[in-house]
Protein 1
Amino acid sequence: MLCFSGLGFTGSDPSLACGDVEGKFDVLFNRVRAIQKKSGNFDLLLCVGNFFGSTPDAEWEEYKTGIKKAPIQTYVLGANNQETVKYFQDADGCELAENITYLGRKGIFTGSSGLQIVYLSGTESLNEPVPGYSFSPKDVSSLRTMLCSTSQFKGVDILLTSPWPKYVGNFGNSSGEVDTKKCGSALVSSLATGLKPRYHFAALEKTYYERLPYRNHIVLQENAQHATRFIALANVGNPEKKKYLYAFSIVPMKLMDTAELVKQPPDVTENPYRKSGKEASIGKQIPAPEEETACQFFFDLNEKQGRKRSSPGRDSKSSPHPKQPRKPPQPPGPCWFCLASPEVEKHLVVNIGTHCYLALAKGGLCDDHVLILPIGHYQSVVELSAEVVEEVEKYKATLRRFFKSRGKRCVLFERNYKSHHLQLQVIPVPLSCCTTDDIKDAFITQAQEQQIELLEIPEHSDIKQIAQPGAAYFYVELDTGEKLFHRIKKNFPLQFGREVLASEAILNIPDKSDWRQCQISKEEEETLACRFRKDFEPFDFTLDD
């Protein structure tokens, strides 16, 4: 049932892709254990199609409650029918059981080896309102626009969808009993055309089909680009013994030499979507996104504050040749925190600098819980450029002074794990609650209880000296400058930082350890943001620029 990709296992950790599990968890995971015993460990398992079935939940309960455990980090797509929507409560993705994670409705996930994996859950729907188990033209449009809008975009490593792309069989080898002119999703075809994945996995048709690789460029008219391999996988434990597991290992695109990346396989075919004449109409309707920079937000914010200041990149009468700022890094996919992104909840933004901005935390631990975020797309502190680091430090020092004036000390932490954009959490703790040593002890004690190795690092050390770009980690910085660091090797509790600060030993608000339980109305958020802007104004160093 296992098919090994012909690329070999060189240069990156091998991974597994799987078709419809349909609730046969024991069959799948026993098979994975057997494979790992024979072939060595795999980095992750990607499941497309129906993860849950119509069978009773007894087997799933054993995994959900921890009686049984998946032997490998497993990532799954969401529901494809109304019956299984109940299992996927959080549209943004969540942990379903230990080692089993729901990716979410749509987005991009970066594996530990650096692989960029784009995912789209559900089946196609052209109706409004869109069912909870479907994706719409708008979903596909936003994914394509966010990912393809930069001139540097070359493609993605992996695309995960449940439906096949319509017309995928054009110019290719036989797809068996599946008529690709009738079956599948035209929206997925459009997405695959735009994203140019090196691998595209799908399921739902209960058969195995490995299409010949197809090219993503027009010969003699465009520069050579990498080829795409489409693999449809069968359902787990099917009686016909069709392949439902596929092992592959590829070096992330961003680490590859261009000549090696665009090397064409000998059996490469024409692109099945380009010449069909029937590509999903959405692909032709997407306009080139307008160039949005962070500058637009200076006006929005200062209009509310009743004053204006100049922002980098705007024309200035005092300088006939204004210096053009370096364009901030762009996100590889939809991002809730890139300031130029339409996804940003702008009413939460409370201050904007040249390279960073401050925003109230959604579902904050307290009314003045804020985030320091880079304007451009950086995943972690380790990846920040020198000028961004300088402004982050400036914001940290300013916030310490601001909170000290209000009888509070601030604690900062970052979790570079299952996150796409750097979020430096800044939580003020009233001086009357506890001492800095109490906070430090609380982090160390709770880390020990959860078997997390939290190491103290020198006060003036740089996180970049300890963690490499792409490495997963958690660190907390106290108001004294002391830092505690944990290198994440496998699993890590996503709410750990909040749980410690919310505990009885510090803020004594244990019911607020999960931000999702602390959400308030947009009107209340706007009131808090307005109040913070006014209070912070005397400390606002950006007004001096």
Note: Residues 1-11, 276-325 have pLDDT under 50 and may be disordered.
Protein 2
Amino acid sequence: MDALASEEYASQSKLLQEFTNVPSIDGAWVFQTNNGSKLLVVRNGEKGSPTKLEIVDQSHVEKEIHVAQSVHGPLYTDEWFHGISWNQEETLIAYIAEESPEPKPVFDYTGYRKEGSSEKDCNNWKGQGDWEEDWGETYSKKGRPSLFVLDIASGEVRAAKGISRSLSVGQVVWAPPSSCGREKYLIFVGWLEHNGFQNTPRKLGIKYCSNRPCSLYATLCPFEESDVDNAPVSDSKLESASVAINLTPSISSAFFPRFSKDGKLLVFLSANHAVDSGAHNATDSLHKINWPSDWKMDQYLEITDVVPIVMCPQDGCFPGLYCSSMLSDPWLSDRCTMILTSAWRSTEVILSIDVLSGKATRISPENSEYSWSALAVDGHNVLAVSSSPIDPPQIKYGHQVSLKDQTCTWVWDEVNNNPLMAANNKVKALLSHHQFSILKIPVTNPSDDLSDGGKLPFEAIFVSCKDSSHKPTILVLHGGPHSVSVSNYSKTSAFLASLGFNLLIVNYRGTPGFGEEALQSLPGKVGSQDVQDCLTALDYVIEEGLIDTSKVAVVGISHGGFLTTHLIGQAPDRFMAAAARNPVCNLSLMIGTTDIPDWCYAVACGSEGRQHASESPSPDHLRLFYQKSPIAHISKVKAPLLMLLGGADLRVPVSNGLQYARALRERGGEIRIMMFPDDIHEINIPQSDFESFLNIGVWFKKHLSISASDAAV
């Protein structure tokens, strides 16, 4: 590295650190003096070490329980399987942890050692045994998610019984106490492990994938088993009580179960359309079950729709539910209103849902282009966080105010004196000359086969510098393709903007938040419709006189990298530089190496792909995959490309990016490859994330010839 480059790295790394210092706000708790006085602290041990569970009462460690690896491994903390639930009396805690691994065969210098022989001999070694399927990206070294219950008084941990080995479990909650008995029931989500092609026993990747079939199940608390064990053999009802029961067999997806405060309703989300269509994410629906006070496990429960799928929303109207999480206690004190955070076109909003009428109301400010997320419910009120691409997170407290016309509105007060203010003020100063807006981009020349929703305008978030028409612009593309870029604060986007770049963040058709028809318009048309949407958005800001057409770069991750490499091949004269993080470059190579081969069929073939999906693709499908891939256009690429790859990526393995990079180099293209050997698809190890975006900043500044004065405004 020469002196000039070294100075650039030093300058940009100092700047990036300012944005990194702003913490994200992902959750909050409101403590009541008369409720929820105890706290569970989980300390997952290193491999082979016990898990430590601490019961904290009034800031005092009341009890410490060490759970041996022979009982279970670490607790799950991810977005799907994670689940920790206290019972009403605060005497039992249900949670999801890794099942202990099956014993491995043991060998020594004489060969195989039989069961029961000592393993203390230093000449012994453990074999590998049979390979087991896992849930792919981020789950490759984890044990099966299993349900356990801790009795706090005795410190005993028991595994739930009667759960099929074909299920992975998560998101456990306690059912309300029965009015006619002392049985304690647990409700959990179960994912079928036999979800491979043609119902074969394969676990397809679940990270970012809401289209994996799942149901709500009920099982008896394992500390209730003594009643079942002592029952007469002829009593079939008591025998069946030890077997988990599917509560939602009529629909293909049910998750995030929540009981109302009075215990009369069980409400849950469903990604039924994602499962049935094959799209890896789609519009959610909300459902409820009237929960009997004397429910028994052999009793049928009817499912009622609360918020259905929205196919084609009217302009400005509710576009449907798109929820990636749910508060553990989402209920207002009226007992019938839930608070949810959902994508609404290019913003994230807070919704109140009346589960009796099904009415969905936007309670975050309707005239705000900021994104809002609920953190906790406090009686009638809501604690939330709000941010924008140029404004760091601010904590807000919302409450309802009655108006003269007998209606109510929500008022949001800023929570001051929080520890984030100092870092936020520094970033605000760095972005003080920037603005942002959400642009509606009309679809040009829509084809006749498109649904009405597929013809509606899509959107782009435009973050502009002062005098933007003379500044370089970066086209920023999300992955998925069924994920969304919302108008919240992102340290990496803010960093790139502070360098003097305009940002055009495109939510092309297929993005959630715009209705189901718009989302379903993309499968089968990747590499064409989504590419055209990106170019249409670029044309729009050029025609409006907002950017300099001669200074444009493009960056994206995953499917965003797919679009990045497509754009520099299909429109080679429009981009001066590009950067791609773990991009999909060749679907015909990816199909045999990824944890989600069904995704390749879904995006390339559309809904018809499901009936043809196979672990051994036909020559015709391999040809189609190649034709829809960026590598088919590699001979036309002119822009210098920075390729950033995670060596442990199971979603888009490094072979995809390396093949493209080597082929580009073979043709004389300018390519730089950075490999992060321990990173997965996201490249989210903090040091790796920092280094990757630092290099993106240096790369774009070099190839777009941005000056120090440009970076200052």
Note: Residues 226-239 have pLDDT under 50 and may be disordered.
Protein 3
Amino acid sequence: MDSLVISALTLISVFYCFLSGTHGAAPQFAGLPTSVTVGEQETADRLIYTLTVTDADNDAFNCDILSSNPAGAPFRVLKDPVTTKFGVYTNGATFNFGTDPQYQLTVQCDDNTGNTPTAVLSVDILAGDKITFSNIPTTTTHAALTTLINSAIFDVDATDLLNHNPLTYTMTSIPTTTSFKIDATTGAITTARDLKFETNAAIDLYVTVSDGSISVTEKVRVQLTDLNNVPSFTNLPATISVNEDTSSGTVLYTVTSYDADPGATLSYTMTVTPSQYSGLFTFATNTLQLSLTAGQTFDYETRSSFTVSFTVTDTMATTGPIDLTVNINNINEACYFDKSYYYVSLAEATAGSVSYNPNFLVRDYDGAASYSLSFASGNNSNRFSIDSSSGIISFATDYNIDNGAMPSSVILTVVCTDPTSKTGTSKVEITITDVNDNAPSFAQSTYTITVDQYDAAGSLMGTVAPTDPDSGVNGEFSCSGSSTATSATTYYSIGADCGVYLLSSPSGNLDYGTISRFTITAVDKGSPALTGTTYVDVIYRETTTTTTTTTAAPSTYNFWDDSGAVAAFSIAIVLAAIMLAVLLYYLLRCCFTGMCCGPEPCDFMECCRGYERPRRVQRRLVTPEKPKRPRRDDFDYWREDSDYGSLEKYEPPSRRPSPA
């Protein structure tokens, strides 16, 4: 009987082991064993440690405290309903550092398949200490569309019972978001971006404060109102099938989208997998139509399925990528190339002088025995020729890319045509490299530059830069100069920029009129390098004023640089001013006194009629005297005779002066 019982128990054990083996690995702890610290004065139910446990079989599991030392420790394991993670919490704690300064907690996780791994968490009690949050847990509400970056969300306030400083704040969020940040020293929570980009209506911010020994965590819930509505596609994901002989430009699918926010402006993107086939598809963002790109065809034998992914955004939230699967139906087709893209490199040259074989490999599953090759028109294809049988490419015209005369890179469409007139296409990118076929050249065979005694050392006296029609590096050059005259290299130098520079003033050392000749050589940077030469005669001359050094270009006369002309002009200005002053004086005299020169005013022009002259004091007559001559208001003496006193016979009675 006993043997039967033993046999039955053995079978049960074996069966149990078999069941356990079918469920694979047990839950695995990460981060344990470790230790945490709790303040002796802590009484609230606090999260002191978050367990990190995984199950390779994705079996559901539950965790709890299997045992503690000392026994009956005031801790428990709870599962956070938001994060779905297990954590160790204090449970109605009353700690006594004197009697129990440390606890050993054995945590067990059970996946209900017989796998029950354990791990140890040590809890150290810190004598007399406690960290307390004064204003969390709590909930704060904000309007998403109007809350901008760096806006204040909440100020977390925590204190340490023993005033341990500094306190350090850290924060995590559920669900994960980049919209918030916390100041590590002040606990101030602010926005890390405009909240119009946030798509979650409620975010739990888990704030942890630590004094270096104790860490305490609590939650701030951020509730968002006026949240932006996320745009969406209404007919994706989807799957379509098209024939491989579908004509290029055909609309394959029309996407539809929706945004609950009135007036929202939506934008779209499209990607193709595999990416090398992106050129097959064209997506019009204004009509939301997906088409087969112009000039492109499907090839079932090369690729029978594509994934076209779309995204939509209203600038604040993005949906996608969401896929449209495009399956290709096999149809009898024309010839096709083994590659969708070929690359050719040619050096610029005359027509027919160079050639290149891209090794086009063309097949036709319909069994056609022959085909011909050609270029589709457009994109400078007329400048190239292709052998219809071998596919060898050459120039159809003299090709020159110097200074952008012709493009240095073109992408052409190669067409194969089978006997049934069905065609296939591929792309060939032809890169044309520059040849150093032009030497630097100078405009003149000899240049003349003058230097005088006033020019300062280090001055640029002139430039004789050449030109090089080549492009890129081949068109770049530098200059150097040489001279057989010692005076030339003593006082002058030729820069790499083809400039003539004054090393030191020749004043007192060279005679005026001394000519120093340099041979200037310009060397381009092509391979092989080409050169050009010219001569520069530097003439040392005397000048009476400090003037700008004459360059190779002819100078023009400047009036203000001529000291004699400026002096003559200044004298003329002074004389004109004097004459103007004299003229003004006589005009004023004419206005107020007339043209007469006697003691009496004679305003015969009546230009000062409104001016009241001061009355003359009547002289006392000692002896009889003749009546004073009356004032004349006009050129009356023009009407007098030679007696100068016979006015009565000419003046009308109304103008005759009354007796004095």
Note: Confidence is low (pLDDT under 50) at residues 1-22, 549-555, 644-651.
Protein 4
Amino acid sequence: MELNEGKQERYFIVVRRSKNGLSRGSIGCADAETAAGDLIGMVYGGGGSAKSSGTVKKQDTYPLTRHQAQLLLFVSPASRRLELMCNVQLFSAICALAQDDLVVVKHKKDFQPCLVKNLIQIGKKDKPGVLQMLGFELDLVDTQHDILSKTTVPLPFFSAADIVQVAPSHLNTRQPLRDSVDLGLKRKAVSRINSMPALNSRNAKKGSIILNTDVSSTIQSLSHSSLEVGSMAEVISLNGLTVFGVIRWIGVPEGKRNCWAGLELDNEVTTCSDGTFGTKRYFTCEGNKALFVPLTNCKPDSRFLFIPNEIPKPLEPLSVTLLEDLNEDVPPVAEQDVLSHLIGRMRGIQGHFNSCYLDTTLFSLFTSSVAFNRMFSTSEDSEEGISNILRRDIVNRLRRTGFVPAESVMKFRERLGCKSFATEEKDPEEFITLLLKQVLHIEPLLKIRSCGDLAQGAYTHQIIVEKNQVRAVPSVQQLLEMSFVSSDLKFEEIPSCLIVQMPRFGKKFKMFPKIIPSTELDITDILHCSPRECFLCGHPAEYECVQCLMDHKLQPGKIKQYCITCNTQVHIHSSRKEHTPQKLTVPDHLPEDAPVQRQQMQLFAVLCINTSHYVSFVKYGPNPRSWIFFDSMADRCGDDNSGYNVPVIRSCPEVGDFLSQSEEEMSTADVSQSSEMVRRLLCDSYMCLYQRTE
């Protein structure tokens, strides 16, 4: 075996589980490299001591400097190391921290501003096979009184992962700390550099030191000077809860002396307005979402970690595989985790360049449903093939982190086999057919028999009805049954997933102003060779009559199938003598008293369109109120050239409340009095997605 010796130490982090058992996040040091590209060296365990030695594939690792390796080695558990590295700007800023730099850390379930006091080397120095870990010694800062707290209980050493924000780079002019600071954790005499001013002031509290003007102003700049109109911010409300939103207005409102901010919140709060403060309107938004507070009460949204005073951008990870293990499929987001994991701005799939049709379709298919997971196991694809890109870069990332950047989606679009899918607007059904049939080579989801002929495959079903065949506000159940019966169609078998297109032509013309998306779809009566019960007496049916479908004396719009006796009696009537009932194909030797098992499918997503823009509603759990709304281009930061779209996910339990009503109540409801989410669902529905209940 030929070896390439390297003089310099080559540190790395394992980003993909290796065959020899190395877990993701492990830190190692390579001594040599084989001609085949394998790294030979050791992997460090707890305390920085060598845990094991052996080989690891170079493609399963990511290179580190010694300083980065030491900082990451102090982070626990190992998975947090990968999460930290994926925030490129933050990790780079942490690696360059200098003494007296200002940072924000998560301490005792709260976020605290601190000053960097020292870089601490942890572990036995100069011992062979030991890599000393690096942690930070920090001092807490009280921003309300501009003091450096001298707590009686010493603070723990903080790891790099404890730091969630770093002061603006132009305010940090000191030299970065490096491991030349020779300090040991277990030494009693620790040489600490004391650079804080010891000022004797009458205003100084006992046990505290007043901060100098530069540090105090830096703290304030970290808190709010970087905020402007369009910034994502957070505010702690009077009841102690943190609310998030976008700053829509900054200025001095009537009756106030200081600068205030008007925020449009992510979620409704009953005490908020629609953009008015006092008697004056400062901006316009949905009701109960406008909050006005002093600007000093706002701070950058902690959910999006970036260095203040720099243009916020969706951060591109160092490597896609840092967060996704190619050999692990991530399950759908659990119902109890959706609100904390998905709701908010910069959540979901980020839209870019006419991609809303694709973003909403993928979000609907994969966020909470398992109906399409089988496509990955049935598609044989290379590591960089399109199915692996879809699974790794989009589906796994969406389910694990709650956000997919536009770059990942564009990489997928460029491999769809047609250039227009990367640049032009498309329809969801066109994308679904291409994805399943031509790219992933999946068998048709639907097998439909027409006029007794052999079954034909399809991926979606377009509802075709006459307007006078159903009520003014029809349900998907009524539309599907009418579409099948009037065209003499039957399902050959129960589909695992049913994608139904609403009766509309193009993006503008809608046959019905409102359509009720049935939460459960009963397909029992449109299944071929399936037991059915008589419409009148409930006994096993043997005949079906299409002409009776719209009979005003027999519940018009309901499918009519009869047993032998009822079929004879119904068609004795003079108005029905010309009807031609058809013999049903039913299973042989069916017991006469056998109950008919209803075959139902469950609604899990609705795609909507308005003015050429697609959005989606997704049901994420069995609770009737578990509904979320997704828009991949809900907002935009920056201009058309250098900006980016902001995807938003909102919780909309009111949709579940509305759909829990009876069909009669929903069809007669005044939609103008309903919430915006309910109106969009009923008036803009384009495609409904159903899956088998089991």
Note: Residues 236 and 265 are 12 Å apart (CA to CA).
